Amino acid sequence: MDLNSSEITESNVTFSNLTGASESLTPIWALTSTFFLAVCIIGTIANFIGLVLFAKNPQTITPFEVYVINLLGANLANLLIQYPLAIKANLYDSGWNMGNHACSLYLYSLNILDGGIVNSHAIISINRAWALVHPLSFRRAHTKRFTLTVCGIMWLYIHAAQGSFWLADLLYFRVNVQVKGCMFNTEKLRTWTNVDAVVVYITPLLAIVLSFGIVMVGKVVRSRASITRKRSAVQPRSVASRTGIEEATQNSHPETGAVMGNSSRPRRRRSFKYIMLTLLTVSFVVCSAPETIYFFLVGFVPNFWIQEWFQVASLLFSCQSLVDPIIFVLTMDKLRTAPAGR
Q1: Cα–chain-centroid distance for residue 84?
Q2: Containing domain of residue 60, as a range?
Q3: Where is each G-protein coupled receptors family 1 profile domain found (predicted)?
Q4: Per the domain annotation, does 6 fall within a domain?
Q5: Per-position pLDDT tens, the chain of length 342
Q6: What is the total count of domains within the chain?
Q7: Do 219 and 132 meet the contact criterion of CB atoms below 8 Å apart?
Q8: What CATH number should be reported for the domain holding residue 330?
């Protein structure tokens, strides 16, 4: 989430202090502040409930659900750390007035947690693409240990890329918070900022879109192949053989051809997986992509700044942490049926 109180700079966070301005002690509850507060409260509750539902039966957590828990946990941490600081700073005309330590915490959350959330989305999309396109290899390799390792490597990678940027700014290039406000010194770290933007934000965005495209193409190819198999099967020598072939075809596994007793449940589960991937992709493109693309352009296009785009993108980006748990509740059996089972 990117908020600004008084002055827009080229960094993707900035609470700038107004030099010579008298500090107002009365909070200003503008539309933006109110919106972010609502997202913070509702998003915190939604992500917390999602984590509680998983925690009720930890022994039944599947490998894929480890990714979901990882994302919900990152959302919750972001909502509890970054949002309260940002909202408080945005309430006063004087901008950032909470000191250097609070600023460091805010910038850490902005850099590490935002990057972790974006990359967690990419991991889930790639995972779903793998599961739907190559289900057999997915089942063999996709264990809980594997998913925990992937999540651990992702956070190490985020800390290596984003954390080193944050640490360099903190130790060597931090601007005077009392004078300029809470922001990264992008003038001194411009090349580093641009590289991080491509590696940590643009690349996951491309991976999400590409994974979705691969899954949709694979779905179309399999559907056409299934239709072709059914048409070729309806060439029996007798009515009895036709009935037997049709029953076997209808009850066979779509990937292996093995006969199954009742395929309605697996088909419904596969349908929810497609719906989940579609909703996650659409929500990310709508909520997160505008801000990701915007700050990419800010870094690479001289003097690029469109205030209206920035404001709308900030509002949309804040919605991502709220939308994620809703999507998982709607598309995952464990979360969708948990409230009814209590």
Answers
A1: 20
A2: 31-211+265-341
A3: 46-328
A4: no
A5: 554 433 333 334 455 554 444 455 677 777 778 888 999 999 999 999 999 988 888 888 899 999 999 999 999 999 999 999 888 887 876 668 888 889 999 999 988 999 999 999 999 999 988 887 788 888 888 899 999 999 999 999 999 988 888 998 888 888 888 777 888 888 888 888 888 889 999 999 999 999 999 888 888 887 787 777 777 776 554 444 444 544 444 444 444 444 444 545 555 566 777 888 899 999 999 999 999 898 888 888 888 888 888 889 988 998 999 999 999 988 887 776 665 444
A6: 1
A7: yes
A8: 1.20.1070.10
Q: Which amino acid is at 324?
A: D
User: Is the entire prediction scored with pTM above 0.85?
Assistant: no
Long-range interactions of 132-135: CB distance < 8 A, separation 24+: 132/215, 132/218, 132/219, 132/270, 132/273, 132/274, 132/277, 133/214, 133/215, 133/218, 135/255
Give me the sign of the Cα torsion angle 202, 294, 102, 191: positive
| Residue 114, domain member (yes or no) | yes
In a domain, 257, yes or no: no
In a domain, 225, yes or no: no
